[in-house]
Amino acid sequence: MDPEVSLLLHCADWRGLRRCQVQVELSERYNRQTDLVLENHIEEIWTERLSKAPWIFNGAKFRLHSFVLASHKNDSKDACNQTDNKEPSTKQKGDCCPALPTSEWAGEEDPALASKSVKQEGCVLILRLGLTSYKDFLGTNWSVQAEELCRRGQVEFGDPLCLLAQPLGVGAVLCTVDEQIVFIRRSQRVAEAGGLLDIPGGHPEPKVVCENLGVKFCEEKIDMVMLSPDAVVTELFSSVCAEIRDEINVPLIFLGEPVLMGIALNHTSAGRPSAEFYISCSLTSDQVKSLYLKGGAEANESTDIFFVSKKNVLQLNQKSNLWSELCPSAKGAILLYQTVKPDGQDLTEQPHTP
Known about the structure:
Blueprint: E1 5-10, E2 22-26, H1 36-52, E3 60-69, H2 111-121, E4 125-133, H3 134-139, H4 146-157, E5 169-175, E6 180-186, E7 197-198, E8 201-202, H5 206-213, H6 229-248, E9 259-266, E10 272-280, H7 285-294, E11 302-309, H8 310-315, H9 328-340
Parallel strand pairs: 2-4, 5-10
Antiparallel strand pairs: 1-9, 3-4, 5-8, 6-7, 6-11, 9-10
Helix pairs in contact: 5-6
């Protein structure tokens, strides 16, 4: 496998998960660990970055700590209304990613309780989330000291990732009605992977959850009390569609229901996680290109749009010429798409046809 990426979690048994099959558990216990030395290091990096790129801002993000995944295969048609009496077992947190130390996923909760929770709520996946920020990401995952922070985390806490921000991103494998997968060329102005090919993506935003709940907030002071788990799940699934709208300029009405394929890790930023989705589009590739060229809200983040046939994407690997042009987030999404094959069954709502 490409050393830049690995798969933390895939949902191949279910051909991907819909919103009703996913829950989140929010807790301050899932925030990163810290100390004065680390905070000073983060502040130094942030000050330096601001001097070079004064347009950046420190936004709140969700931090992925761990997850609970049911291990039995559900009927995809009835997964949202499960009423059978089967008791799903749960995988230990480390089982989904042998490349990561299992100590990162050593659960404090009773696995039996986690399994009961999955059964009672009719869901398949529980994501355990804390809060972090873009500033913390730059000072930990993106820092030249990231490797040392992992070593410290392992020695001091038995968890190599506990000092890292680990902000949860989102990305979309967007497939047009003529079976073309959408890629964009990243601008040289963006902070990471400038000039490389990417998929539409970004982050679910705690501030959007607060706005949708009608909560007054200062972004740097958002805490768990302001959030609700259901609203966070909604933001997780809707944020990836919003990124397509803003980056590609495709109206939401032409997008199908997002299907969560799994979570990929970007090892060029110390294993930062990203939830990757499959989304169908009722427009042709020509129609999508036409909309893109008109410019969207985040048009400055890319310089061009490309289309690769679904057949060719399924065959992409490290030997392909295109592979070297892909940024890590796109590679992770493609690996999940090839593993999960979410369009192999009719899991998504049909998008609006113009």
